[in-house]
């Protein structure tokens, strides 16, 4: 499913610090964000927490991913540490494949990922091989 392929990109796009600051809450948008997905990421001094809501048909997931990040003003590197998936709104048949999905996401997050980043005022653009995503600061 397209939404699952885009999830690692979304999670990679959720971190930053050092030099110009990414500290604060940010929402994600852009062509690489699949329909039915919304994400809010909060960057703290050296850690991040991303809240992703994924809806596709009758499938609704709430995912919380957190980890560590570094940001040098041009490159963002993040390493995930924890993923929690709320499957309470998932149909019973879809819950059967959830363990494999969580394992796949956790493995993907645990590998450090580096992306190019361009910070402008209250937004930044993150560019990865999968595409670009824009984050806008929540005021």
How does the SSE layout of this entry go?
Elements: H1 2-12, E1 24-29, E2 37-43, E3 47-56, E4 59-71, E5 75-86, H2 92-95, H3 98-110, E6 113-120, E7 123-128, E8 131-137
Antiparallel strand pairs: 1-2, 1-8, 2-3, 3-4, 4-5, 5-6, 6-7, 7-8
Helix pairs in contact: 1-3
Radius of gyration: 14 Å
Binned, the helix content reads 10-25%
SSE order in H/E notation? Answer: HEEEEEHHEEE
- Helix/strand/pairing class, anyone? alpha+beta
Low-confidence stretches: 1-6, 12-19
* Largest β sheet strand count, sense and barrel closure: 8 strands, antiparallel, barrel
Compute the number of helices: 3
DSSP, total strands:
8
Termini separation: 33 Å
- The side-by-side strand order for the widest beta sheet comes to 1-2-3-4-5-6-7-8
Gross morphology is globular
Strand content: over 45%
Average pLDDT metric: 81
Question: Which terms would index this structure?
Answer:
single chain; 139 residues; alpha+beta; eight-stranded antiparallel β-barrel; 3 helices; 20% helix; globular; disordered N terminus
């Amino acid at each position: 499913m397209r939404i699952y392929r885009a999830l690692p990109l979304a999670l990679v796009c959720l971190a930053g610090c050092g030099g110009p600051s990414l500290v604060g809450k940010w929402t994600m948008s852009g062509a690489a964000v699949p329909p039915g997905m919304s994400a809010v990421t909060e960057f703290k001094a050296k850690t991040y927490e991303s809240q992703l809501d994924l809806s596709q048909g009758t499938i609704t997931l709430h995912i919380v991913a957190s980890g560590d990040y570094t940001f040098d003003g041009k490159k963002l590197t993040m390493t995930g540490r924890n993923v929690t998936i709320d499957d309470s709104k998932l149909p019973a048949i879809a819950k059967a494949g959830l363990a494999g999905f969580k394992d796949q996401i956790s493995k993907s997050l645990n590998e450090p990922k580096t992306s190019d980043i361009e910070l402008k005022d209250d937004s930044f653009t993150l560019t990865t091989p999968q595409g670009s995503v824009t984050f806008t600061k929540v005021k």
